[in-house]
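User: Predict the complex with magnesium ion.
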Amino acid sequence: MALYLQADKISKSFGDFKAVDEVSIQIEPGNCFALLGPNGAGKTTTIDMLIGLQKPDQGQVQVFGKSFQNAKSSIYSEIGIVLQQTNLYKKFTVHETLSLFASFYENSESPNDLIELLQLKSKTNERIEKLSGGMKQRLHLACALIHKPKLLFLDEPTTGLDPQSRQLLWSLIEGLKKERGCGILLTTHYMEEAEHLADLVGIIDHGKIIEKGSPHELIQKLAFKNSMIVEVENDFDQSILNAKGFETNFKGLLEKRFDQFDDQISSDLSKVSEMTGIKNISFRQSNLEDVFIKHTGRGIRD
Ligand SMILES: Nc1ncnc2c1ncn2[C@@H]1O[C@H](COP(=O)(O)OP(=O)(O)O)[C@@H](O)[C@H]1O
Ligand SMILES: [Mg+2]
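Assistant: Here is the predicted structure with magnesium ion placed in the model:
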């Protein structure tokens, strides 16, 4: 299948500082690639190069098999972009904004259809300054969809949104992928978002992709698939706990990683409860943050 996007080892420096270091990304039709990493990892700089706003110092970007040097306007007619910082004219209503955007294109989506699709119907005649963060973000997405693009670039689309707005945006993004076959590149520092939406994840830190694969693959590659987290009552002798394979995780809680819960783990747990009162025990499955921690020793949002 022809790739919608192919970036090969693109790099970008600002002075002596290498913000993006040999990043490669491929997107197939109907697939989502998530660039997951902390603030300052190089996500926005990467997107800027993928959409032709910045020229890579090294490496190649092809969108629909074309390059920005030769085919910028042709590429722009088929991609939709929601940047991290976008401002619309705040005195316009939702409908006026979309009508304005629609007027730029010969073959555009109808504003009312987009309003329906993005669940903004009750806000059709509301001024932008009155919209919540989640509604504004949906309107930004509507604007990016006005010319029926095949490939979407979303830079941290849900940062700062409440969980409900985030869920809604996730289901809209999934719909675009499944029902319209859109390719999607999104950046995020929420591992749940990458896990939920992405067919392929590139985990990025200090400008480099440190792991790439499907969320499932990356998690399966971890040495431990599960974890037990124990909150204790009193001070305890750390060295004994360490000997039992407990460690203090990056949130300061006692954590033991394991594959299968067995007699050994339950005896380790009894040992802890003999030494100190246990306030709470919880279990969790390993996730993409564990992949990040494995490589960097810190959490994504530390
Ligand atoms: N125009 C610029 N000039 C100098 N440094 C920059 C510029 N743009 C980004 N950077 C630096 O490059 C790094 C990556 O930034 P960015 O791509 O915005 O990261 P992210 O989007 O992952 O938060 C940061 O350290 C940032 O300060
Ligand atoms: Mg950014």
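Residues 32 and 199 are 5 Å apart (CA to CA).
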